[in-house]
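User: Hi! I have a protein structure encoded as tokens and I'd like to know what sequence might fold into it. I'm fairly new to this, so please keep things simple.
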């Protein structure tokens, strides 16, 4: 028993060392590598403009020679980047920093969830499998919305797991409210796709386990109020500023883009690749 415990302690130590090493490498890359991807440059400019103008409501940038509101994404990621620019100065590192923080928060959710069901060695193994996944590692140091959305998804699923597994009624209620908060934050990061991304794995879990009765204990009223209080104000303000915003954002960006090649993209050229290419890229990146 003592030998097994000692081996586990050594393994955990090595896992922590590996994690810290790759964290340092990521930070060096974030500082030294300039913004390169078109989306990364665009999102970096949106964040820097928020910091420069003090307007943290409308994400604005110069497109086709005109300063205009970017209606393709909600503002939370750009707001986080703007705050980061105020703290660290306008730089590639500053606008990438929110993604880095979100990656750490995501692996913390993974550690917390796995640690509940296993030992520290298993939890740290899960952390390394998550963090060193090629796509996860790359996106954890990029100025893109994907890592913040990933944090919302993992946080929402972990919160629902806590709600479903927690035996103490008060703790279960708080986990339920955190689930709705994750939905709200996801709505401010990337829109309704967050609700689908969080809701589908939860729905599959309930269907597989047959825990439909547990849904009656969900904090439906308080959770819905939290969701509305966090997410609705920005959408209402944007509709008052631009009455056409809601139609373009909800229909073009969150529905038509998944089914139509030319979905009316106002800020790019739509889909230029063949259907299904995203799945092939994902498969190759995760080999």
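Assistant: Happy to help. Inverse folding works backwards from shape to sequence: for each of the 287 positions I chose a residue that suits the local structure. Here it is:
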């Amino acid at each position: 028993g003592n030998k097994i415990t000692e081996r586990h302690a050594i393994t955990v130590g090595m896992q922590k060392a590996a994690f810290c090493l790759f964290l340092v490498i990521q930070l060096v890359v974030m500082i030294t590598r300039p913004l390169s991807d078109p989306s990364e440059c665009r999102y970096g400019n949106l964040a820097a403009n928020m910091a420069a103008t003090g307007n943290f409501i409308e994400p604005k940038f110069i497109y086709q020679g005109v300063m205009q509101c970017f209606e393709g994404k909600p503002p939370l990621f750009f707001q986080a980047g703007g705050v980061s620019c105020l703290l660290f100065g306008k730089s590639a590192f500053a606008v990438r920093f929110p993604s880095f923080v979100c990656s750490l928060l995501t692996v913390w959710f993974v550690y917390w969830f796995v640690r509940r069901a296993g030992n520290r060695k298993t939890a740290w193994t899960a952390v390394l499998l998550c963090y060193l996944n090629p796509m996860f590692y790359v996106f954890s140091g990029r100025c893109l919305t994907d890592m913040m959305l990933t944090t919302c998804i993992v946080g929402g699923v972990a919160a629902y797991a806590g709600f479903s597994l927690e035996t103490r009624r008060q703790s279960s209620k708080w986990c339920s409210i955190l689930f709705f908060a994750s939905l709200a934050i996801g709505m401010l990061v990337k829109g309704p796709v967050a609700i689908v991304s969080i809701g589908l794995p939860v729905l599959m879990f309930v269907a597989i386990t047959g825990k439909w009765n547990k849904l009656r204990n969900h904090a439906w009223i308080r959770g819905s109020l939290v969701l509305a209080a966090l997410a609705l104000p920005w959408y209402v303000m944007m509709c008052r500023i631009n009455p056409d915003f809601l139609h373009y954002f909800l229909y073009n960006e969150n529905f038509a883009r998944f089914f139509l090649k030319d979905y009316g993209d106002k800020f790019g050229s739509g889909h230029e690749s063949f259907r299904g290419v995203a799945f092939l890229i994902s498969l190759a990146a995760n080999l």
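A useful reference point when you look it over: The first strand starts at residue 60 and ends at 63. Feel free to ask if any position seems puzzling.
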